[in-house]
Structures are given as structure tokens and as C-alpha cells.
Amino acid sequence: MANVDIRTNILNIELKNPTILASGIMGVSGSSCVYAARNGAGAVIPKSIGPSERQGHSNPIITQFESGFLNAVGLPNAGVDSSLDEIRFAMDNAGVHVFPSFFGGTKEEFGLVAEKISALNPPLMEVNLSCPNTADDFGISFALSENDAHDVISIVKSRTKIPVIAKLAPNVPDIRRIARAVEEAGADAITAVNTMPGMIIDVKAAKPILYNKCGGISGPALKPVAVKCIYDVFESVNIPVIGVGGVKSGEDAAEMIMAGAVAVEIGSGIYYRGIDVFRKVSDELRMFMEENGYDKIKDMVGVAHK
Ligand SMILES: Cc1cc2nc3c(=O)[nH]c(=O)nc-3n(C[C@H](O)[C@H](O)[C@H](O)COP(=O)(O)O)c2cc1C
Fold this sequence. Notes:
The protein has one domain (about 10-55, about 80-205, about 220-305): Aldolase class I (TIM Barrel, Alpha-Beta Barrel). The chain has about 300 residues and is of the alpha/beta class. It is built from ten helices and 17 strands. The protein has a nine-stranded parallel beta sheet with strand order 7-4-3-17-16-11-10-9-8. Helix content is about 35%, strand content about 20%. The protein is globular, with a radius of gyration of 18 Å. The structure holds flavin mononucleotide. Flavin mononucleotide binds near residues 23, 128 and 195.
């Protein structure tokens, strides 16, 4: 094992291992980010924060099915002004990098929240483009349109000097177009992907299970979708890609890295394997690399393209 090095780099920011807590899974509290870090996460992303307080949806907000989870939490958060202390707490105590995540209901709100978070001087920020555009009749998310995604990233970049990661959605005709649009707008990295829309109906009640009716699929069911998105994004842009969707083992992480990811976020994996999923995935990844002749993460990044 001595030769295997699982450290990785995103834009010259070093992570002791490539596992990152995905946004939303552990809520907004700084202490839950610290908890994930103590259990082996190489970096942590708190739940997305927006311009003002939001209640989120009523229960039920999450349900499990054979191969994953369906959630419609509705982005509950205290609003950026009240959330900065929690993020600061995480930054001071996690012992690993904290990348705040944020959203807006309008393009301008993304810029406003970005500017406020920048006061904390985080190394990176993740832009959650998968939230409803309140200026659109159907509330269609910014992640689904090249123009909207481009505009959001341009506005964010004009309001902050902190590097930004654009988090993309899988349910688009061609993710390569969205990836190119955000790269052109100045995104420094891309996360692929957020959840995939879905619905589960309780046939005895003859109604959708979630209060919101539909939600986002995460967990193993999302993994092949995410791997293809990472693969496609890797081929179309020159900025680093972070993978997310269904990772719960070292081999899952290796698969995403081979598709082109320099690091992997883990969310639902916590429900399957416990909070120390980060340590377990890192140990399994190290073993996989040892057994398969990879010394460094970068030797594995994108090898599936050759
Ligand atoms: C309960 C729950 C809440 C989430 N909240 C957010 C969020 O606030 N911001 C965000 O960008 N993604 C959010 N996500 C999406 C995850 O960050 C991740 O992209 C998705 O769950 C796929 O990864 P996984 O299969 O490892 O869970 C949430 C996912 C779940 C299950």
C-alpha cells in the first residue's frame, strides 16, 4: 500500500482524499459538516443557501425505493445572512476545506448571495443551478437552459473573486452544451450531477408519495446517469469535473474518476453505509488502486476515454 497516494487536487486546492460531502445531505448546520469531516471526508459542502429564509416542502420529503431515494426537500434554509455563522463554524472546525453551496430565485439573487458568501473567503463555492427560476412561468431550473446557466455564472463571476463550481443537472438533452456554456461564462470547475426528476405513486392511496408529488432521484439508480454526464462533460470542457450520484463504494468512486472526475461527492451513500462512508470509500479506493496498479488519482482520471 505504501506507494498509493489518494490525495487529489481541484484547481490547486489539495484534498487528503477524493471524497466530498455532497450538498444537502447533512443539512445546513456547521457541526454536521464537522461530523462528516471527522469521519473521513476530504472536503465538505454544506446545504445550499439562498438569499432569504425558506421553509421548504411539507412532509413526506423523502422516500426510499429499490435502488435509491426520491426527495423533494424544497431547499429549506435560513437565508444567507443567518447562515454565514454556520459556514464559518464549519470552516474553523472541520479541518478540511469547506465549499459553500448557494442558489437564487433570480439570476441577480445568485450574484447577491455569491458576494455575501465571499466575505468568508472560502477556497471554492458551488453554484446550485438546479433550483426553480422564479421569473419563469413554469419555474424551470437554471440548469436546464444554456442561456440561463451561462447568465447565472457570468453574474456570479462578476460579483466574486472566489473560484466557482457550476453544479449541473442530468435531465438535459445534451449536458455538453450546458458544460460549454458555463465554462465560457467563467466557471472554474463543474460538478456533475444533481438529482434526476422522478415520481413514485403509492398505489393503495392512488397518490404520489411525496407531498410535492415529484422529486429528485439519488443513490445507485442515478449512478450510470451520472457516469455518462461526467464522461460527456470531461470530453467537452477544459476545467476540472467533480462527480456525484450514487457513490457508496471505492469501486464506484474509481468508476467516476475513470470517467473524468478529480473528486467525488457522496450524499445518499451515507444512508447506506453510515457517516463513515467517506473513510470506507477512501480505504476501498486505496485498495482498488493498489490491486490495479494505480499510484496516484491523476493516473486514473479519464482513463476510460482511451
Ligand atoms: C435530501 C437531499 C437534499 C439535497 N439538497 C441539495 C442541496 O441543497 N443542494 C444541492 O446542490 N444538491 C442537493 N442534493 C443533491 C445532492 O447533493 C447530490 O447531487 C445527489 O443526491 C446525488 O448524489 P448521491 O446519489 O450521492 O446522493 C440533495 C440530495 C438529497 C438526497
